[in-house]
Amino acid sequence: MLISPQLARDILADLTKDCGLPLDAGELIPGKGEFLVHGHVFVGDVAVRGYKDKGRWKYDDRDIRRAGQALAAVTVDTADVVDARVPDRRYFEDRESFDDWSRADWRRTLNYWIYAAARRARRRDIGADAPIASPVDDFDVFDPEITDDLDTDVWSSQYEIGPHGLPGELTFEDLLALYGERTIAGTRPLKLLTWSGTHWVLPRVYADMLDRWQERDRTLAEQAQICTGCQRQGGRCAWRTTTASGYVTLCPACSGEAFPAYKGHLQGVAYSSMRRTHRADDYLCCLCRESRAFIWDHCHEHGFVRGPVCSSCNTFEGKGVAFLRREGSVQHLLECRGCRESCTLPRRFHLDVVLDHLEDVERHGRCRRRPHAYRGEYVHGVHHITLYCHAHASTSKWTKVVTVAEAAGIVRAFVESSLSSASVS
User: Which domain holds residue 52?
Assistant: First the structure.
């Protein structure tokens, strides 16, 4: 029987209430894209498969009960411990790409938390705007600024490991305040991390469990990279596309053979009049042209259909300037008859266009470097936008005032330029 994530969480929590492992049954509540990598959620070293039913993710009740019984049987001997191998900078020095960071590696994650917390502690101590009590930034994967700092001699001198076993002035209380509730494989490792007087240790049975999770997660991820059509091996999540029943893996060639390209035959049609009579997943995504489409993209302001898009491209549309810079994106937005006739874009893109325009035309004095424009206050129809030049730290900020009318003119010029470029090509 398929059950909701909330019921699955409650059942698992009840079955493991006396377990010595620091489990978090709440991991069964899926976040956005939770099942993208391989379709499973791990609690400890037990993989629980997710099933999509009527547009909602669910679990098999039998899988949850088996997982709960297996985890409840684990006995944690806190006297039998192994070296956790933290803190250790070697886990940062072998990084090659983002994929390396996104692969399951519990020791790398623990090390990252420690050095990220140490950096925050130092910023707090020197008065920088980064309160140690609340992890504002998301450090779930990696932050290039932190990992780049690790390569410098300055970092080496300021974050030497002290007698307490942590880098710099970081205390274990600070580390817990930042990352004590963070999870690896549905468990909270910092709850069991202990200082022996010479090194940090974890119970052997728990460390062995994390090793098994790491291997099983990687195996499932590798299996999910294989195209179900031709059995070719792809990159991590590269060919994964969502369907009504869950994620599948299809390479661009197999997707192109299986699904026809959208020809624009619904341009000018109201989304409300056709969304129940035409299936988006009958087509190839009209943006990337590599994956099966999942939904009909449409203009929320004018109500007209733009075309069928895959889940990945639909998410990327929310990235503002990054989306607008991708080839064909602006033309896709202008598939809306209302936007095209008004020579505009949806309002949520206006400020992004204005910020990008100001970065192109504004300069700090005679400096030739492109500044960075920040979203500022919007008061009485006027945008107060802050610009910052990284080349002149002491006198680098200034404010630019842009009215709504001026913003509309900038957007119109942007659209006209895009349409002109499209007609030439």
Answer: 2-21+41-71
